[in-house]
Design a protein that fits this description.
Length: 232
């Protein structure tokens, strides 16, 4: 897939913890999570587009004002020119955070070993037994790749987080217990609040209530040391 930057946040306080960042949104995804709020990016139906020249001019302009660049989507690792975008950013004094669904473990390894990405955020959609239901694709062919990405980061010295968006229709306490077992040894896990939006792939889904999320948090902490709720 040719690289296409279809969204740009020139200053974000929420996309990279404790960092002021520029956020770049890339189009396309190999999952169809019903609760995804970036539906137009997933299906490449947005008309917005930003050139590399525009992005580089912004990077030059924001030196000393911005700490980092977050690359998100969609699924950024689908883009064959992602490496060129990262190399362009690395010419400037910015940290890089990559949001990914983990379906390209070889690229994650490559980027980490060459110190081209400073922070990885991998979405762990659900326990393995409920993954296909949660991502909206039956017979999903890349589940083993997701597992490989998770295990690689756990064993590596990379800085990373796993994150799970809590959706009432997909997540119960038993699912959180099972995910915790499957990512045992994780450095950091964030349980995120689902926020319904008109751009979600499926309408009518609901957030997990705070009381239930707190129970999930306590169960998760029995196995993973650093677990927090996000946006609650």
């Amino acid at each position: 897939m040719a690289l296409k930057i279809v969204g740009l946040e020139k200053m974000s306080l929420v996309d990279y913890d404790d960092k002021l960042c520029i956020t770049l949104f890339l189009n396309g995804c190999n999952m169809r999570c019903p609760f995804c709020h970036n539906g137009p990016l997933v299906f490449s139906t947005t008309d917005e587009e930003h050139s590399l020249e525009e992005i580089e001019n912004l990077l030059k302009e924001r030196i000393g004002k911005i700490d980092a660049v977050t690359i998100t989507g969609g699924e950024p690792t689908l883009h064959k020119d992602l490496l060129n975008l990262i190399l362009m950013i690395k010419k400037y004094p910015y940290l890089i955070k990559l949001d990914t669904n983990g379906t390209n473990p070889d690229l994650i390894r490559y980027l980490h070993e060459r110190k081209l990405v400073d922070y990885f955020a991998i979405d762990v959609k659900n326990s393995l037994s409920k993954y296909e239901e949660t991502i909206g694709i039956k017979n999903f062919p890349f589940l083993s790749q997701v597992q490989a990405s998770i295990q690689y980061l756990i064993a590596s010295d990379a800085d990373y987080e796993f994150r799970t968006t809590l959706v009432k229709e997909f997540h119960e306490i038993e699912d959180i217990k099972q995910i915790a077992k499957e990512i045992k040894g994780a450095k950091r896990w964030r349980l995120q609040k689902f926020i319904p939006a008109e751009t979600c792939i499926q309408q009518g889904l609901h957030e997990v209530e705070r009381e239930e999320a707190d129970k999930m948090l306590q169960e998760a902490r029995k196995i993973i040391d650093d677990v927090e709720l996000r946006s609650y």
